[in-house]
Amino acid sequence: MIGNTHDFDKRLEFLTALLTPSPSGKPRSLKEVCKQVGLPHKTGEEWKRRLRTEPKEFLNIVDGPPDEVIRKLLSDNAALRKQLSDADDFERVLKIRLEDIVSPLKTNPALYRKPDRKKRGADSLVAMVDVSDIHIGSLVDAKDSLGLSEYSVDVFHSRLERWENSLLEVVEKVRSFATVDRLIVNAMGDWLDSFGVFAGQAYEQDLDPERQVMVAVTKLGASLERICREFSEVTIYGVPGNHGPHGRRSQAGRKFKTDRIVYWFIIDHMLRDVPNLHRSPLADGLKPYAVFPQNETNQQIHCIIHGDQVRGWMSLPYYGSGRAAGRVMGLLGRSDLVALHIGHHHQLANISGGVTDIIHNGSWVGGSTYSINDLFLSDIAKQQMMFIDEQLGIVMQHPLLLSDPVRLVVDTNGELVPEGTRGVNG
Predict the structure, then answer these.
(1) Cα separation, 347 vs 163, whole angstroms
(2) pLDDT digit string (tens) for 41-61?
(3) If both were cysteines, with which of 16, 21, 55, 406 could 70 make a disulfide (CB 3.0 to 4.6 Å apart)?
(4) 0.85 exceeded by the pTM?
(5) What long-range pairs does 203-206 form, CB within 8 A, spacing at least 24?
(6) How far apart are the first and last CA of the chain?
(7) Residue whose C-alpha is closest to residue 300's, from 392, 386, 222, 384
């Protein structure tokens, strides 16, 4: 637990900046840290000295780790920076730091839904939602996208609220004719925009990497906890995306992805006391699972992947989707794969291919500056949701719309602008 101080946020920002490497992977100098945080250099020197000599007093930490643990972490930070290529060390350091900042959510078992016994004769369905490509920290300026798209941390907050409300609203409507006690959440990667993925990425962001982690953990963790209250059983399956501290070609591979940190912190730390949450180990690349493991004749095998492994053609992913599904079935030795869930491509679509359905998820961003100006592609922000019957499989799909379609109209100057803009003809 951390006590409240008027400048705690600034001190926390200073600490995270000090321990976070630059996008090139090199340690940051105190001068760079002070410039980033907006501190005079003398104040930075004093704060760094206090972090080494009296860390708990400086951060006003109550009941945190022993002084010697914090002091050692800070005194060894130069050595730790050199070890950032080792994913396990990076993960351990972040966990130590974050565990003292955010406490597990307090839960009351009475708040969580009990199995529905009133509709014994009704059909029972399992709700499933794909959650991918949130890209917290990404910035899309409407001025750079013809007004067709806009994204920022504030837009993320509003879309998170809309996602949560839409999900629960759809479930309540389905409950008017069926029992829906179970929810499966497919966490399919790129929850953060991260950094170092492509040249110039920093110019298309409104949050530093450490702030991306904090927003994801606090906002998504709280939303998932509220959703857990509405079901008697919730299971989360997860795979990391390709956005990580050093991009897809990181020497540390998939284990060095910020998605792994966020998943761990939300599921195993913040939500650790949620009584109806079932935790499945995070996979590295693909995660197969059975929706109905007790049904020996129809277990309903699904598999989730991020999707950067799927090659597209003319910027469309469908060329490689069928081949990916075939390879996954061969790898698993199962010809009864019901569905392959794919993210990454930001295009919501369904492809029915015999036994296996290929389900492409959308994104929370919609069109990006790159997709609109270079690929001439855009889509509204949306995520996949479906309902599964034990015998019939997927019987219903309902995309969760997180933004509204934008219609371009001609203004008084002859320019195409979003409808509702001042100076529009008619």
Answers:
(1) 17
(2) 888 888 888 877 776 666 654
(3) 55
(4) no
(5) 204/138, 204/139, 204/140, 204/369, 205/137, 205/138, 205/139, 206/137, 206/139, 206/152, 206/153
(6) 58
(7) 392
